[in-house]
Structure formats: C-alpha cells, structure tokens
Amino acid sequence: MKHILIDTDIILDFFFDREPFSDHAEQLLALCESKRIKGFVTPVICSNLYYLLRRTASHNKVIDTLKKLLLIIDVLPMDKQVALKALHSNFTDFEDALQSFACSENGNIDVIITRNIKDYKNSAISVFTPGSFLRMETLY
C-alpha cells in the first residue's frame, strides 16, 4: 500500500469544491477512505486547514470537519530535527521544506501529492500532482 502526504492545496480543493481540481482531490480521499492508499498530513497542514476553513465556518464546524478528515488519514510527527533540516535546506518555501522533511524523517512516505510541484524540487521524496498520481495508480 502506498503512503502519501496530501498537501494543503489538495484538501482545500476538496473542501471548497475548487474546479477543476476537486474531482482528483475527491478521488484521492476516497482511496484513503477505502484503505487502498494511506494518506497523511502534518500538523502544519492541520493548522493551515483550520485557519482557512475558519474563514467560512464556525469553530465547532471546522473542528468537526477536521475530526472527520482524521478518521481517514493520519498525521506525521514533526520535531526539532525536522525544523532544523528545513531551516538548513535549499527549499525556498519553508512550509514545503517542513512537509518534505517530515516525510523523509518518517521513512514510510512514498509520494507527496501537491499542485505546487516547483516548490518541492529539492525534495528527496517523489512529488506528483493529483492527476499524475491517479493515472499512475490505475496502471497497477
């Protein structure tokens, strides 16, 4: 079973039904729910999701939404080592560096799924858009 990190933008595509991206986001989360792949986020992604969803819904509704999300995906740990590696990296986006090094430190993440591939060019983990990942998965 593949283990994937699902970046903030993909989950927001799902929650905000952002066309034309929401279909792929929905398919990824459905694969996680059916346990065909194992999805992960980081605490930073959880925080970003809360902040952005909170602009459109009450605290309680957002918390309930995040609880439901965490029923089908897991959260990677982040610690000082991850932060230091991100700070000393060649990434131009610190948040993306944190995500990438959280995946590397975990050791079990196969792929990062994001629409923002260019910011992950220094990642040791393979990076795919949702569409390219889903096409690849249908080949197996």
Which helices and strands occur, and which strands form pairs?
Elements: E1 2-6, H1 8-15, H2 22-33, E2 37-41, H3 43-54, H4 59-72, E3 73-75, H5 80-87, H6 94-106, E4 111-113, E5 126-128, H7 130-138
Parallel strand pairs: 1-2, 1-4, 2-3, 4-5
Helix pairs in contact: 1-2, 1-3, 3-4, 5-6
Task: Please outline what is shown here.
The protein has helices at 8-15, 22-33, 43-54, 59-72, 80-87, 94-106, 130-138, and strands spanning 2-6, 37-41, 73-75, 111-113, 126-128. With 140 residues, the chain is of the alpha/beta class. The chain has a 5-stranded parallel β-sheet, sandwiched between helices.
Structure report:
The chain has 140 residues and is α/β, with parallel strands linked by helices. It has a single domain, classed as 3-Layer(aba) Sandwich (Rossmann fold). It has 7 helices and 5 strands. Helix 1 runs parallel beside helix 3 (43-54), helix 3 runs antiparallel to helix 4 and helix 5 crosses helix 6 (94-106).
Helix/strand order, N-terminal first: EHHEHHEHHEEH
Distance between the termini: 11 Å
What count of domains describes the coordinates?
1
pLDDT average, as an integer? 95
Helix content: 40-55%
* Helix/strand class: alpha/beta
Gyration radius over CA: 14 Å
Which strand order spans the largest sheet, edge to edge or round the barrel?
3-2-1-4-5
Q: How many helices does DSSP assign?
A: 7
Number of strand segments: 5
Low-confidence blocks of residues: none
Shape: globular
CATH homology superfamily name = 5'-nuclease
**CATH topology, what is it called?**
Rossmann fold
The CATH class assignment is Alpha Beta
The CATH architecture would be 3-Layer(aba) Sandwich
Tell me about the largest β-sheet.
5 strands, parallel
How much beta, percentage-wise?
5-15%
